[in-house]
Design goal:
Number of helices: 9
Order of helices and strands: HEHHHHEHEEEEHEHEEH
Structural class: alpha/beta
Radius of gyration: 18 Å
Strand order of the largest sheet: 3-2-1-7-8-9
Bound molecules: ligand BJW, zinc ion
Strand content: 15-25%
CATH superfamily of the largest domain: TPP-binding domain
CATH architecture of the largest domain: 3-Layer(aba) Sandwich
Length: about 240
Amino acid sequence: MTEAAIAAAARRLARAHRVAVLTGAGISAESGVPTFRDTQRGLWAQFDPMQLASREGFAADPALVWRWYAWRRELVAGAQPNAGHLALAPAAARFAQFDLITQNVDGLHARAGSRNVLELHGNLLRSKCFAQCGTFVAEPRQLPPGEPPRCPRCGNWLRPDVVWFGEMLDPDVLDAAQQAAVDCDAMLVVGTSGLVTPAAGLPAAAKRAGATVVVVNPNESELDDVADHLIRGPAAAVLPSLFPS
Ligand code: BJW
Ligand code: ZN
């Protein structure tokens, strides 16, 4: 069943000229990076990620939120791109247009060789000033764990350069992603629960504009209804077969 669904989707993708890909945390699961809604392991089981990933959560306890991100940053630093990430990087060259849109903050697509990745929710490996004075810091792995470091310009806290709940996405990145969605003739959606807007609206926007939508997820998701091709399987096993050499 899944084999037939993969073969049908692969045939459709092979005919496409303009492809957009939307990835979520599931694509990094097989690299050992927990999905967003599965980050509550061990010591972190008692905390709500929706609370930690918010300005209010950081303001209430900056050290706690900083430690959560420091822990996740270490996990990502020790992880490697998997066969799913690695299948997407060379696939870009097969199409007239190929846009890779990710909700992930782990940077694994770039480490797999993908270029011009549209990172809708920022990147865990960068930090910026909580007071929005315009300061960005590139290499927070060198920063101490525990308390957040201070902004070198204004002295406020540094925070991860990610998009928290209730914050606006970078308008240029969001515009580019929305344009890619309405311009593509096939959209591949991988490893996202489809719970978080505006990212979750991109597959429906693509479909309304006439694109075929392929969804890859081992579990049910909010995006199953949008799928023309629904592939129930893990990204690292499925993606190489969608772009056979
Ligand atoms: C596999 C697999 C394998 C497993 N292979 N697959 C009410 C109040 C306030 C705001 C809102 C509200 N109602 C709606 C909103 C808007 C809000 C929102 O959507 N909230 C919902 C929760 C309801 N959105 C926002 O606030 C956004 N901003 C915005 O809209 O601005 C305008 C506005 C402002 C104020 C009010 C209203 C509007 C910003 C959203 C930012 C999201 N940021 C996060 C955190 C980033 C930093 C960090 O990581 O800490 O981004 S949240 C988190 O969810 C993260 C992810 O990118 C994002 C999506 O999650 P994803 O990737 O789908 O992961 P999971 O874990 O949910 O799912 C994993 C999937 O993988 C599952 O389906 C598995 O089955 C699958 N899987 N193994 C393939 N091997
Ligand atoms: Zn500052």
